[in-house]
Amino acid sequence: MSASTSWTILIATSVICLVIKLFGHYVPERWLSNKRLQRINALIPIALLSALVVAQGMVVKTHVVLDHRLAGLAVALVALMAKAPFPVVVVAAAVTSALVYHLH
After folding, report:
1. Contact present, 75 and 58 (Cβ < 8 Å)
2. Which residues of the chain have pLDDT under 70?
3. pTM of the predicted model, to two decimals?
4. Nearest 5°: phi and psi at 60?
5. What does the alpha-carbon distance between residue 60 and residue 88 come to, in Å, rounded to a whole number?
6. Which pLDDT value is given to residue 104?
7. pLDDT of residue 96
8. 25 three-class SS
9. What are the residues whose beta carbons fall under 8 Å from the beta carbon of 99, sequence distance 6 or more?
């Protein structure tokens, strides 16, 4: 991809983001106060972060892999379900991932 193509894509994407942000200021207040919309908006960050964790934990370039990162994610999930404190979740996942990496 050439430099001019990259800059064109970057500027076009920036303009699109600006237009979307400006459009948000013109949305009527009654739409934003809708309870259903508020519930949906509360779930969007959770869904996006979950997708990011899975994508970063199971994909290398264009291949799906099952490796030490998935073991760490599994331990983190179990620790979260057990309502462990966040530092415990992070350390347990890191230690598990390191052990599986070392044993593999």
Report:
1. no
2. none
3. 0.56
4. -125, 115
5. 27
6. 79
7. 96
8. coil
9. none
**Which DSSP string do the residues of 11-22 spell out, in sequence order?**
HHHHHHHHHHHH
Question: Which amino acid belongs to residue 68?
Answer: H
**pLDDT number for residue 63:** 83
CB-based contact 37:31 (threshold 8 Å): yes
Residues 6+ apart with CB under 8 A from 22: none
Q: Is 59 helix (H, G, I), strand (E, B) or coil?
A: strand
Query: For residues 73 and 53, is the Cβ–Cβ distance under 8 A?
Result: yes
Q: In Å, what is the CA distance from 54 to each residue of 73, 87, 99? A: 9, 20, 20
What is the C-alpha R_g of the chain? 20
- Determine the Cα–Cα distance for residues 25 and 22; give it in Å rounded to an integer: 5
CA distance 91 to 76: 9
Residue 64, H or E segment: strand 63-64
Tell me how far apart the alpha carbons of residues 95 and 77 are, in angstroms, rounded to a whole number: 14
